[in-house]
Specification:
Length: 133
C-alpha cells in the first residue's frame, strides 16, 4: 500500500531553516545538508524517516521564494503540553500566527507559527488514543 513520505519546501536560508525546525520546533536533522553543485543544497528534518520535511535551497539565481496561492501549511504534533511548547517557541523568537485554540471539531488544541520562509506551521496537541470498542 502506498504511504506518504515527505513534503519538500524551498528555503531562503538553509542554516536558519534547519535551526528553526530542529532547535526551535524540536525535530531531528535526519540527514544533510548536502551540497549538489549547480543544483541545490538539501537537508531532511523530522521525527524519523516515516514522515519528514525535505528542505531545499535552490542554487540557481532567483528572487526570494514566495508562498504559492495554493499552499496551505505544514503540521507538527507537539510532544506534550501544547501551551508550554508554544510559550517556549515564543520565548525563542518564533512568530506566532494564531495562539492556542480548539480545532473546528473541538477535539484537539491547535496553534500556528511561521517558519523563516513565511510558511505557516500548524502545531497540534498529541492525539488522544481512543479505546477500541
Amino acid at each position: 500500500m502506498p504511504r506518504f513520505l515527505h513534503t519538500s519546501i524551498f528555503v531562503n536560508d538553509m542554516e536558519e531553516s534547519i535551526d528553526f525546525y530542529t532547535r526551535k520546533l524540536g525535530l531531528k536533522l535526519l540527514d544533510g545538508p548536502y551540497h549538489y553543485p549547480g543544483n541545490a543544497d538539501m537537508a531532511f528534518v523530522g521525527h524519523d524517516w516515516n514522515a519528514y520535511i525535505e528542505l531545499v535551497f535552490d542554487l540557481e539565481a532567483h528572487p526570494p521564494y514566495q508562498l504559492g496561492n495554493r499552499y496551505e501549511h505544514l503540521a507538527i504534533e507537539a510532544d506534550g503540553d501544547l501551551r508550554a511548547y508554544l510559550d517556549g517557541l515564543k520565548e525563542s523568537g518564533v512568530k506566532i500566527l494564531k495562539d492556542v485554540y480548539k480545532s473546528p471539531g473541538g477535539t484537539r488544541a491547535i496553534a500556528f507559527v511561521e517558519d523563516p520562509n513565511g510558511i505557516p506551521v500548524e502545531l497540534l496537541e498529541p492525539r488522544v488514543k481512543r479505546n477500541p470498542s
